[in-house]
Amino acid sequence: MAHYRASDSKREHFRRYLEKTGVVDSLTSVFVSLYEQQEKPANALEFVKEHLGAVGLASADTENLLQEVSDLRQRCAHLEEENKDLKERLHQYEAASEDGGAAN
């Protein structure tokens, strides 16, 4: 009988852990979404995997990726401006060398 209570206690502790960390809410949300599908997917496991993956990306990963995109766009704009300046300088040197070569 004591073994049964210890097992129930561990099970209850694990259940509280899953609730506290949001696992129960995430799974419930995915299962409700699957239940509400008009046409059930052929592979329910793939449906659950896809929707759980989307849930996990919604927080820190998405913010990090958005920040990275913003940083890369700024870097790209800076490099485009630098490229433009270098092309202008190159054209100036080419024009100067053509003028100098024609004078000789």
Automatic annotation (TrEMBL):
Gene3D superfamilies in the cross-refs: 6.10.250.1060
Descriptive protein name: c-Myc-binding protein
Compartmental location: Nucleus
Keyword vocabulary terms for this entry: Coiled coil, Nucleus
Taxonomic path: Eukaryota, Metazoa, Chordata, Craniata, Vertebrata
Chain segments annotated as coiled-coil in the UniProt record: 62-99
PANTHER family to which the protein is assigned, alphabetical: ASSOCIATE OF C-MYC AMY-1, C-MYC-BINDING PROTEIN
Keyword RNA-binding: no
Main location: nucleus
Similarity-based family: Belongs to the AMY1 family.
